[in-house]
Structures
1.
Amino acid sequence: MSNSTDSENTHILNKPITISGVMPPDDDASDGDTGTNSSLAPHWSADAPKGGKIVMNRALKESAAVPLFLAQTFVQSLRDVGYDSTTSALCEHVDNAIGANASEVRVLIRQTGKKGTLKTDIIVHDNGSGMAPNVLKVATSFGGSMVFNNRSGIGRFGMGMKTAGLSMAPAIEIISWQEAGAYYRMILDTVAIGRDKSNLIALDDPEYLGTLDADIANFFTVPMSFPKDTKEQILLAPHDIDLQDALGHSGTIVYMPECDRLSSATARTLVEDATKTFAHVYRRALTKGLKIYVNNRPVEASDPTLSMPSARHTRLSALDNISVKTSRLVTAHKISIFPHTGAPLAHDVHIKIYALPIREWSKLSRKALSEIGVFNDQNVTILRNDREVFVGHVTKLVKRHGTAAWYRIEIDFPGELDEAFGVASNKQGVRMKDFVVEAIKKEISDDLISIRADVEQVQAQNAIEKKGAGPSLSETKANEADPFQAEQLDANLTEAEKAQIEENLRGLAIGLQRENETEEEAFQRIQASRYIIRFHHDKYWPFYDVDHKFGRVILTINTAHPFYEKLYEPVMARALETTNGDDDDGSKLQPNNLATTLDLLLLSLARTQSVMSQSNVEAAELFETFRQNWSNTLKIQMSR
Ligand SMILES: Nc1ncnc2c1ncn2[C@@H]1O[C@H](COP(=O)(O)OP(=O)(O)OP(=O)(O)O)[C@@H](O)[C@H]1O
Ligand SMILES: [Mg+2]
């Protein structure tokens, strides 16, 4: 490599040749095995590229020149570069379109044939700058980039278009134009490359096309099989519009025919996943006016932080009667981070924390909240140069916690910090270095503590309100069962004492009054029921407490204990969802059996404890210790 001259390099670029000292194969019959020491014979599979095998055997000979990249096998291996899904591979093409200043990108997933033998072809088209023929040719090579290592845009590795394309299909076609109708095409075909016997494979010149092949034109003029309702599809060129005009004076088409490696076999799943993912990955570009269509349906921006006034969730009918439609920015931080140790310059990272309007939204049904995206598990979103590279949970940064659904963290970093954030060439996700995680954590920890406390407070209040007016179903059931219990509560009270209790109930009612109750309502509730469930929020408390006074068994459930967050709350929420979720008719909330049974389990515990302690001080003390120890044990088990 080091001793090759410039003229040799130029020559190599133009025409397939072999490198110095190695003779090209003289006929097709040669399989390249002859003359190789058998102990050095490669153990390739039968379907390995034939051309590659020939070059390999040639290279294994003593002092043979060995190409740095064995193209025949290298392109095959690159097919497995590892995109999580078809959507994330498609993102590479959308990235390139944005890099080329496109205002419109179309992803078309065409499925034809019958079930079992479905054929899927994909096109990504954009109306960006297009590529001049020489650029197109260089762009087709691996590492060929017009922006190599430039950190200001999305692309920087010179790999995306090729690796993403080949991760879906064995061959790709790239068609680009910078003048209406002057289409140039490059083809990258792994099967043809695998058959090639040259030591060094060079790319041909782009081919000039007078018109687009009918097969490709078809993508833009005929609706896709999904969405089924073709009225939903806005075609680029319906039959009354000339395709060449519609394709405009510049643009690029990447065609991936006969895709053999897709993350789903059905167009529907592929289309829906791409639509959903593009909506948040490109939310900034979409709000600035970029149009992305997937199978001719426009993609609407969605926002994991739920803060964008224009995001999809703000138009949901669930929020029709709610004035607050977005989350609220709580704090914005800026920290400086060095790309790596010894780097001369630090760069800014912006961190924003958003709180969801829990007070306004928590009255909505769980179904509505899910639709809005409250439970979308998108607690942290990370954007590189305005393009989302990660969304989800970062356990290293924030612990999973029952409050996490109610706040969001948005982190923006510039391309200069790719090394620190651990951005791989396929731009899927981040692998933040520990020093980055620590710096962010330190900056936001105080904010998170206060947001969580606020959320917990509202959650505790809601738990109380969800019980509704009057005794709950479980309280009523416990009352009804009382006469059938073996041992009666307060069995040895005199009539005078009983009368005194009734008088004291007013005082008790004030202490147990719920926020949505009048004093009188609280009194009536307490008068009507021997069993009372209430909630309290204290992280140093056991998960429940029992108080037996004035003839009442008062069970307190601690909303700060993991028992509440991990068992009680989910069971109650699910109960409300199954009984009330579908029809928001305002009927009284009636929890289902599971929820009532859980309440009864706790009420029976409270009753037993009350009965056994009523005339036995030692038992009362033992129960106290037992309650504390059980709670701590449970807390430790549930928090590990
Ligand atoms: N849709 C397009 N419109 C115009 N030029 C494009 C388009 N797609 C690719 N290119 C050109 O081809 C080059 C190679 O694209 P490719 O995606 O392979 O690498 P990259 O974008 O430079 O880097 P990365 O590997 O980070 O994506 C780009 O640098 C760009 O110049
Ligand atoms: Mg790219």
2.
Amino acid sequence: MNSPDAPPPQDDRYQVVALRYRPQSFGSLVGQGHIATALSNAINQNRVGHAYLFTGARGVGKTSSARIFAKCLNCEKGPTTEPCNDCDTCQSISVGEDVDVLEIDGASNRGIDEIRQLRSNVAVRPSRSRFKIYIIDEVHMLTQQAFNALLKTLEEPPGHVKFIFCTTDPQKIPITVLSRCQRFDFSPVETDKIALRLKEISDTEGVSASTEALQLLARRANGSMRDSQSLLEQLFSFCGDEITVQEVHQLLGTTDIGRVGEIAAAIVNKDTNGTLALIHANLSSGVNAGQLAGQLLGYFRDMMAVRVGCNEDTLINCAGPDIPVLEQHGQQLGLETILSTVQVFDNAIVRMQTSLHSRTLLEVAAVRACGLEHVDSISALVKALSAAGNLSAASQVGEKKAQKKKSQPK
Ligand SMILES: [Zn+2]
């Protein structure tokens, strides 16, 4: 029997990392424990529904879970919560080629005709397994008419049919369809769990990778296991058998957090000239302007978190040892100015997406950030002024009232 996590032997068809290391059982599904438990319980208690909706961001394991669930139900040694991954059925479901588990891409089969065809096939019994299982990916792409046609099947499904719908966008699914599904929300995978999985994969591939490098990759994947594995794969071909932080930065077009801190320090000290020189040095060494803007935004975001008293766990871009500097700079700038700085970089990043002049936009943002006045002291001043204004206005009203009283005839 194949171990569920071991990569299949290499053949002449090279398979990408994300596919090769796709989880084959609930046990190896990372970061979705609550879903694995609920689906396993349903199988153990013989309470499997006829329609499921898996929602969540891309690359968090929706389609993998759908396949695992299908194997649980149709494995020749099942129904079971631990499919054998060895029988013909399990193996053909794993590669998406089973006769009774039909995977449909909702984006390219979105019309009424495709769903009508599905409806006429639904009545036909499965050819060799217990259930006929339809996995519809990106189901939100179906047209309204297609949904209506699907609804008729969902209302009275034959006992041998199961539906598993996957979507990144559940809001686009009609409520009538939603209400006939058991819904499972997949969470973004935590950074530490992604990093751990990347470590297992690099070990299996015989590549040594530093913890810091993998953490950096995992953070960049932003909760998507698949994205993290695609990045890792690029690094495999980029680095050979050793992966360092520097190489990850090179691949991502980013710079290390120390150099981001240097630019931030220059901004805090309103050293416009120094800020531009540091940006120039970074861009000359291959850093991408858009990435650097994002890193600066992230750095000031962490400064904001520290400024309002958050602890190390809430830092996204910096780490524990950076806290004293963040504290000092945060105090120097004041909260309002930090917020304005974040806004300045965010605006620049948005504009960079439609501009050919990323570098200039980054520089303009940096100069603007250097020029931000100490907003906290300005707002204190404005408050003081308006308080004084109210005072004088109030005293004027008082005087007028007094005058009116005087002029009123007795
Ligand atoms: Zn099996």
3.
Amino acid sequence: MSGTFPLAFSVTSGKGGVGKTNISINLAISLARLGKRVVLLDADFGLANVDVLLGLTPKKNILDLLQGASLRDILFPTPYGFSMLPASSGSMLSLSTGQKFELLELVSELEDDLDYLITDTGAGIGDNVRYFNLAAQERLLILTPEPTSLTDAYALIKVLKQAHDVESFKICVNMTPNEKDAKNIFMRLHHACEHFLSGVSLDLAGIIPRDTEVRKAVIRQLPFCIGSPGCEASKALARLAATISEWEVPKHLDGNIKFFWKKLLFREN
Ligand SMILES: Nc1ncnc2c1ncn2[C@@H]1O[C@H](COP(=O)(O)OP(=O)(O)O)[C@@H](O)[C@H]1O
Ligand SMILES: [Mg+2]
């Protein structure tokens, strides 16, 4: 993809436990299988678990980066075709706005060497979640058919729209028993946004079925796209990756802005 910019997108949710980290990892693998260069940033500080789900133990993490280690030292190549920027669980429950900005500045140095930067955010509508959603060019919001996931997703969209004017959201429905339920929950969110949050645009990007292989993969600490490549969840992830590879990548950006929307970051303060 030389000559184009990478795309930075977040994988996010209002409610916890909806599958963000599993989707981030398996999406990174699926995009890598399409020949894309992918970096996964673990931005769920405090509950970081990308490395746990991968069964890997990187020696350095984002905290070391902020303390002066070089990005190349922190970037951890996984055996699955993508690299990760690990967080350190528990030891940095909150980053200051300055630290978050510095982190994104440092990560921006990678822009010539990657096609996708995936940010696995925490859940909720707190400071970190808002910040990384705002910084990303796209947001992949994970929903499940549970009513609480719907209300929490709506709350996140509302705060991003009203406080930060973020209007574009890609939706992925996870853990669904069938396609009909997935479309139904998506339409409910769509109607609520249409009624109460004028200007917000939602696009159904993917549907991932409830699949027993996902839980098994978590226990084995081996991503399901690797351990069970033929399972329904793996096939759904391959379709999601194909859809994402069609998303438009910005062609020209202000030279100082690079691939994060730094203007928006400044506006938050
Ligand atoms: N498609 C799925 N089918 C079955 N179980 C799933 C699926 N996606 C996620 N899970 C279950 O949900 C749990 C939470 O997933 P995780 O990716 O850690 O969520 P989050 O990062 O949003 O907190 C996993 O441990 C797994 O057992
Ligand atoms: Mg997670």
